[in-house]
From TrEMBL:
Gene expressing this chain: tsf
GO molecular function: translation elongation factor activity
NCBIfam families, alphabetized: tsf (TIGR00116)
Coiled-coil region list: none
Gene Ontology CC terms: cytoplasm
Entry similarity comment: Belongs to the EF-Ts family.
Residues in Translation elongation factor EFTs/EF1B dimerisation domain copies: 38-196
Free-text function comment from the UniProt entry: Associates with the EF-Tu.GDP complex and induces the exchange of GDP to GTP. It remains bound to the aminoacyl-tRNA.EF-Tu.GTP complex up to the GTP hydrolysis stage on the ribosome.
Pfam families to which the protein is assigned, alphabetical: EF_TS (PF00889)
Organism ancestry: Bacteria, Pseudomonadati, Thermodesulfobacteriota, Desulfobulbia, Desulfobulbales
InterPro entries: EF-Ts_dimer_sf (IPR036402), Transl_elong_EFTs/EF1B (IPR001816), Transl_elong_EFTs/EF1B_dimer (IPR014039), Transl_elong_Ts_CS (IPR018101), UBA-like_sf (IPR009060)
Designated name of the protein: Elongation factor Ts
Locations listed in the record: Cytoplasm
Key words, A-Z: Cytoplasm, Elongation factor, Protein biosynthesis
């Protein structure tokens, strides 16, 4: 199948990948747009894995203010070079992450960083709910483990579904950006402020 420039442009619009990468992906998949998108995402994953250990000492701090000034977020996004820190796609990603944090209110960046006391409190609630519903103790443990897994996926930023596109997690978006920029990028920290609410 002949790969047209319109097909390449459509794939580029969908993925923000480079023109040559889009053309190669379409050639490899015989012009199948969905398979080409998947191929480019896998390439992003591979690049992200290769670059994961590299230091991210450059970057930006981005803010998002919402709801008439009653809700705000600051996020620090790290990268390897000043060149990437000034890139529009990098800055747009930082803004999207700040906006996502405002909407989704994560507790931590990764599940490992969720404070132990919060996990313990949730576990106690789930155990009590299961026991109150009359479930046998052998089943309670399995139920609680499943609920804790689900809870961690909901409160860990990298595992949350992106509010603008629930098909992708924040980790998926980060991997795509790493693939596109060609260097390690990390969400270093964030703070969410809401008037009248102690975080």
């Amino acid at each position: 199948m002949a790969i047209t420039s319109k097909m390449v442009k459509d794939l580029r619009d969908k993925t923000q990948a480079g023109m040559m990468d889009c053309k190669k992906a379409l050639e490899k998949t015989g012009g199948d747009m969905e398979k080409a998108v998947d191929l480019l995402r896998q390439k992003g994953l591979a690049v992200a894995a290769k670059r994961a250990g590299r230091a991210t000492s450059e970057g930006v701090i981005e803010t998002y203010i919402h709801a008439g000034g009653k809700l705000g977020v600051m996020v620090e996004l790290g990268c390897e070079t000043d060149f990437v820190a000034k890139n529009d796609a990098f800055r747009e990603f930082a803004r999207d992450i700040a906006m996502h944090i405002a909407a989704a209110s994560p507790v931590a960046i990764t599940r490992e960083e969720v404070p132990e006391e919060i996990v313990a409190r949730e576990k106690d609630i789930y155990v009590q709910q299961a026991l109150d519903s009359g479930k046998p103790e052998a089943i309670v443990e399995k139920m609680v483990t499943g609920k804790i897994e689900k809870y961690l996926a909901e409160v860990a930023l990298l595992e949350q579904k992106f509010v603008k596109n629930p098909d992708l997690s924040i980790q998926d978006l980060l991997n795509e950006l790493v693939g596109k920029m060609g260097e390690n990028i990390s969400i270093k920290r964030f703070a969410r402020f809401q008037v009248g609410v102690a975080e």
